[in-house]
Write a structure and sequence with these properties.
Layout: H1 40-50, H2 72-75, E1 95-104, E2 118-127, H3 141-150, E3 169-170, E4 181-187, H4 198-206, E5 210-215, E6 223-224, E7 230-231, H5 242-264, E8 276-286, H6 288-299, E9 303-309, E10 326-331, H7 332-335, H8 341-350, E11 357-362, H9 372-380, H10 390-410, E12 427-431, E13 436-437
Parallel strand pairs: 1-3, 4-5, 4-8, 8-9, 9-10, 10-11
Antiparallel strand pairs: 1-2, 2-5, 6-7, 11-12, 12-13
Length: 438
């Protein structure tokens, strides 16, 4: 198998929230991120792993780096003296986490057909009875090394990202009553690790949700399996036309359905599976992971509600429509109604969303703002062009995502979703019909 490195020593028992890192090594690819404000090669490298959205229509070349930009060696100086960390969750529950290795023998891998079964790594976060003894690792040192190497970031220690401080405890005992916890599936962007959604997952788990983040194998720079294999990114170098992105969305939908089968079936590998309420399942994703939420909902009726975070949609909703609740949450610079082709894909799908729906935009956000990367790049000292600080963007994202799921999975009224809020003036409510936002 030509896309697997030699086995590596992960340095720990594989059971926590470790996740692979992803990069396609190309700046501006399907990104819509039109600038590299400062930091020279370092910024270019980090944007390479942060820049991919879900549509070829969103491409825009980055602006030239200013001649006054700081040298690459200066851009990440803060890393050597501080440890990256994720903001604490806002819910009342301690958070546990574990990782599952799942193998779908019913289908070959879509990207490496010689692999006769689709293999997936999935991280779970859940409310715990009490904090555990060991905080979960964000990703393994090898994954951090391969990510930074792929992004051509050479002026930081190779294990920098593996040291990110999380808030979840490995294999802590799950808390809850039988069939008492809603389940949310998370899907990251193309080339991205499932780790990029850890901050959101920890927050949802602290609020009483089980959260499953899927690593879509061969779509990121490194996925570590329990036997030490590390698969790399096969899709990164493929030509990407609209048909390719449709294939990706459908493949991810198949991954999601398989994971749901494994988590809600009678032979689940997770000891807390009895806590999941199979009648309350939803999905959210970032970039193509968000666009794939639509594909997954069209394929699988078990998914009651969905969120697309900043992802251009490539697989149209059929004329028969989608009647389940759906939220578009994106950046105003790219998804303002009537302002370009990425927004046009949302407008196309908006007409076929026949149930509860909202179109919310965050002013001042960039593509990374909806993930952990917005927080981590701020801590490292790299400017990716966002006007809203990463911590603030994460707070907003957590708040609106949780409100959506609380409304549709728990039937708790959420006035926040009905009109603009003075607490969150960055969020604009948009109308596709009038092409206005307020």
């Amino acid at each position: 198998m030509g896309h697997v490195t030699e086995p590596v020593d992960t340095g720990r028992r594989y059971g926590g929230a470790a996740a692979p890192a992803g990069a396609d090594g190309r700046i501006g690819s399907r990104s819509g991120m039109g600038r590299i404000p400062r930091g020279g090669v370092v910024v270019a490298g980090l944007l390479a792993f942060a820049a991919t959205t879900s549509s070829a229509f969103a491409q825009s070349a980055p602006a030239p780096v200013s001649s006054s930009a700081a040298p690459a060696s200066a851009g990440l100086s803060a890393t050597s003296s501080s440890t990256p960390y994720l903001p604490k969750p806002t819910g009342s529950n301690p958070v546990g986490t574990t990782s599952l290795y799942l193998k779908d023998t019913s289908r070959p891998d879509p990207w490496v057909p010689s692999v006769k079964a689709r293999e997936l790594m999935v991280s779970l976060w859940y409310p715990a009875k009490s904090p555990g003894r060991q905080r979960a690792q964000y990703m393994t040192p090898k994954e951090s090394e391969l990510l930074l190497k792929s992004a051509k970031i050479t002026n930081v220690p190779a294990d920098t990202l593996s040291k990110t401080r999380t808030n979840a405890f490995t294999d802590a005992n799950p808390a809850g009553r039988k069939h008492g916890l809603p389940l949310v599936v998370l899907s990251p962007g193309h080339t991205k690790p499932r780790a990029e959604l850890t901050g959101l997952a920890e927050d949802l788990a602290s609020r009483g949700y089980v959260v499953a983040a899927i690593d879509h194998t061969y779509e990121n720079v490194a996925t570590t399996f329990p036997d030490g294999r590390v698969t790399t990114c096969v899709t990164c170098d493929m030509d990407k036309d609209p048909a390719w992105w449709e294939k990706l969305a459908k493949s991810r939908a198949a991954d999601v359905s398989f994971v749901l089968d494994q988590l809600t079936g009678s032979h689940s590998k997770w000891k807390g599976t009895r806590l999941i309420d199979p009648s309350r399942i939803a999905m959210a994703g970032h970039s193509v992971g968000g666009a794939s939420a639509i594909a997954a909902m069209l394929k699988d009726s078990r998914i009651h509600a969905g969120i697309d975070m900043d992802g251009t949609t490539d697989l149209p909703i059929p004329d028969s429509g989608l009647s389940r609740p759906f939220l578009f949450l994106g950046r105003s610079s790219t998804y303002t109604p009537g302002k370009g082709e990425p927004a046009a894909t949302w407008e196309r799908d908006w007409k076929h969303l026949t149930g509860w729906k909202r179109w919310l935009l965050m002013t001042g956000a960039e593509h990374t703002s909806f993930t952990d990367l917005g927080v981590l790049v701020d801590q490292i000292g790299i400017d990716v062009g966002a006007d809203v600080p990463g911590v603030r963007a994460m707070d907003i994202t957590r708040t609106y995502v949780a409100a959506f799921f609380d409304l549709h999975l728990r039937k708790r009224p959420q006035p926040l979703l009905d009109k603009p809020s003075t607490r969150y003036p960055e969020i604009k409510h948009c109308s596709a019909e009038t092409k206005t936002c307020r």
